[in-house]
Design goal:
alpha/beta, TIM Barrel, 2 domains, 8-stranded parallel barrel, two-stranded antiparallel sheet, 11 helices, transmembrane helix, hydrolase, glycosidase
């Protein structure tokens, strides 16, 4: 935002004329009773002063009109007592939904039985979000998930954007541009998310397992390439911030290895170099619960900080899925683990001074049609996880709310919020 200083063209003219005329008159009066030669000389001096003053003001004009820079307000760390979360540029709590970007949604990859997504282009859809009190969107770049999944037993993944292909890159950035612009026109914040599930490295396209998932190698070139394209592109968009990964490790905070943390810190360094002022969200773990309570969200934050992450403009993302009784291989854990408190690790993190952000909140089982895991309330007596977020003052982004067809899920939540007293 810029504003001009108060001196305008009319004021400049008046200042220069008045100053010159006053000097001219003063010199004339001083020599009024002198001889004619001195009188002529004094008036010549006065005239020259008048001209000089005008020239000086004219030359000074660019300085007078220098634009005052005001720092744009950006989403970032918000502290109030022992609450540390991420809020919008004016300190507003972020309430967001998901907007998908991936090659599969576009007409050039249209397949039988696959509906195209057109919500990015729909002004009506964006206006309806604003009407429902939504002030942020999570732009989900879903091609990483497509790339690491395929039909069970297949060696080819689902269609995905090749980030070394100019046409695919142009189409991907065009979609993200549209979402960023749509949000900006409505005063909404945008969190751009690199989205895979249970992995972040490059997949090995050998044979997809029964869960349609390929195994991963050691490189992470695709992820790095995405952020190299995106981070610098939107760094001057004050309403945009970045979520580096989505549930990158299966599944608990205690499953994150030293190698994982080194990789995330390195990715953070790359993005921070390309976007020095943009807020960055790390981890975005699938669940907050750990069967080894010493290796919790706070442990991850401290380890990342040791590796160079500056949490004055970064945060820890979390997803409160009820996965506490599932181990990294999808097997059942000890029954006691299922009773772990899902919110305590988050409040511990915030009380230690690290910002927490709920980047994916789903609905409780049975409330909507969904194959995703359960997202129960996090505080006793609450109806939904969003009610818990509202009570705690933690910004949130909903899942299963992408596009006009899932607007009914958002409407269900709004009705429940009115019924149970957590409306926004």
């Amino acid at each position: 935002m810029r504003r001009k200083m108060k001196i305008d063209d009319g004021s400049l003219v008046k200042l220069s004329l008045n100053a010159g005329l006053r000097i001219y008159t003063t010199v004339s009066l001083i020599t009024k009773f002198g001889n004619p030669t001195m009188l002529l000389l004094s008036r010549s001096i006065g005239l020259l002063v008048l001209i000089a003053v005008g020239i000086c003001f004219s030359l000074a004009r660019p300085c007078v009109y220098a634009q005052e820079q005001t720092t744009p307000k950006r989403p970032g760390v918000f502290r109030q007592n022992d609450l540390v979360t991420v809020r919008g540029g004016d300190g507003e709590m972020l309430r967001g939904v998901a907007v998908f970007v991936f090659k599969y949604r576009r007409s050039d990859v249209q397949q039988s039985g696959v509906a195209l997504l057109d919500d990015i282009d729909s002004d009506t859809y964006w206006d309806e979000l604003v009407d429902r009190g939504i002030n942020a969107v999570r732009v989900v770049y879903f091609d990483p998930w497509q790339r690491s999944h395929g039909d069970a037993g297949a060696s080819d993944p689902y269609p995905f954007a090749d980030l070394d292909n100019a046409d695919d890159v142009a189409a991907t950035l065009r979609d993200i541009d549209k979402a960023v612009e749509q949000a900006d026109r409505r005063g909404m914040s945008v969190m751009i998310n690199y989205h895979d599930t249970g992995g972040y490295r490059d997949p090995l396209h050998t044979v997809a397992a029964d869960d349609r998932h390929f195994s991963y190698g050691e490189s992470m070139q695709y992820c790095q390439r995405f952020w190299k394209l995106v981070a610098s592109r939107y760094r001057n968009q004050a309403h945009v911030f970045y979520e580096l990964t989505n549930e990158p490790v299966r599944w608990h905070p205690n499953d994150y290895t030293a190698t994982d943390l080194e990789n995330f810190a390195s990715l953070y360094g790359q993005v921070r170099s390309d976007a020095p002022e943009t807020h960055v969200v790390l981890v975005s773990a699938a669940t907050t619960a750990s069967w080894d309570r010493r290796r919790n969200l706070l442990f991850l934050a401290r380890e990342l900080e040791k590796r160079g992450v500056d949490f004055s403009n970064a945060s820890i993302g979390f997803h409160p899925y009820s996965l506490a009784d599932i181990d990294a291989d999808g097997q059942a854990c000890s029954p006691q683990v299922a009773d772990l408190d899902l919110i305590k690790p988050v409040t511990e993190l915030m009380r230690a001074g690290y910002a927490a952000l709920n980047t994916e909140q789903n609905f409780p089982t049975g409330t909507i049609e969904s194959e995703d895991p359960d997202s129960p309330p996090l505080l006793k007596g609450d109806s939904t996880g969003i009610q818990s977020m509202q009570r705690l003052g933690i910004s949130w982004f909903l899942w299963n709310t992408s596009g006009p067809k899932e607007m009914r899920n958002l409407d269900w939540l709004i009705t429940d919020a009115a019924k149970h007293g957590y409306a926004w």
